[in-house]
Design goal:
Chains A, B: Belongs to the Fur family. Chains A, B: One of its GO terms (molecular function) is zinc ion binding. Two copies of one chain form a homodimer. By secondary structure, chain A is α+β, with helices and mostly antiparallel strands. Chain A folds into two domains: 79 residues, Winged helix-like DNA-binding domain superfamily/Winged helix DNA-binding domain (Arc Repressor Mutant, subunit A), CATH 1.10.10; 43 residues. Chain A contains four helices and six strands. The radius of gyration of chain A is 17 Å and the shape is globular. Chain A starts with a helix and ends in a 5-residue tail after the last strand. The interface between A and B is large, with 37 and 37 residues. The structure holds a DNA duplex (30 and 30 nucleotides).
DNA sequence: TCCTACGATGGACAGAGTCCAGGTCAAGAA
DNA sequence: TTCTTGACCTGGACTCTGTCCATCGTAGGA
């Protein structure tokens, strides 16, 4: 994730200890964290980091396209650092675990012109739902 | 929507004036309302109806499969009475308007077995995003 | 090393939704 | 029709998620 910090620095970002810690948390193998979870993990390394800073930093990373926002339930948004590799999500309805998946074909191509109602369609999000092996 | 009330009665639902009003509101042509909007419209006809009742009634209709819950932004969930006709959603990123759309093919079929990770996949939600003609 | 504008803080606030104790009423029974 | 009762409704407090803002701190250039 030092890559990420380098890219952000290249975009004029001031690199602070708070931003570094948030970036490191997202770089772990526990992806799809909520903002609250990111804050909790960041606070393990930098106890005085504030919620507002975590929200700001995540929001900035999202608007720079470095992190994806995912909301698979009606609850808290989750943050997915895998933003540079197009993918969709598979969610377990029982335990809520989220996996990145790669459907075949281009989902955008499945929407015929007469179903676009004059929209300029630019993006598709697909969420598959089911029950994972552990919950079944 | 008297159909809906009849189906609910058949499932042992007690038909109260509150539930009737909520069902009538969802039957209007202004679909994809938030719970707050449903409450506001219901209160026009039944001023003393409470927020809790609207939330409860919507939740019950969802769990009975009579209404679909849609969350296209990170904000309030929206309620779609068109639950008996499979469809997906097209959302304008500018004004937030939501249209029901019908992609070709079966979106479930696009997820290969090796991308299912042992899940029993039963459902797909597809959200197309773009800019509508009025906002372009 | 010093400056200063950008960033962090924390506490108040807002929006969406849930919970609960107590009062009300739909619908079946008599 | 009236009675009975358990399902339903109410209003208000509460939780969770996220935003805002005034003030303070500091990264990084001069």
């Amino acid at each position: 994730m030092s890559d990420l910090l380098e890219r952000l620095r290249g975009r004029g970002w001031r690199v602070t200890s708070q931003r570094r810690v948030v970036a490191e948390v997202l770089d772990g193998d526990h992806v799809h964290l909520t903002a609250e979870e990111v804050h909790a993990r960041a606070a393990e390394r930098l106890p005085e980091i504030s919620r507002a800073t975590v929200y700001n930093t995540l929001g900035e990373m999202v608007s720079l396209g470095e992190v994806m926002e995912v909301s698979t339930d009606g609850r808290a948004k989750r943050y997915d650092p895998n933003a540079h590799h197009p993918h969709q999500h598979l969610v377990c309805s029982a335990c809520g675990i989220i996996r990145d998946v790669h459907p075949s074909g281009d989902p955008l191509a499945n929407l015929p012109q007469e179903e676009r109602f004059g929209f300029t369609v630019s993006q598709v999000e697909v969420t598959y739902r089911g029950v994972c092996a552990a919950c079944a």
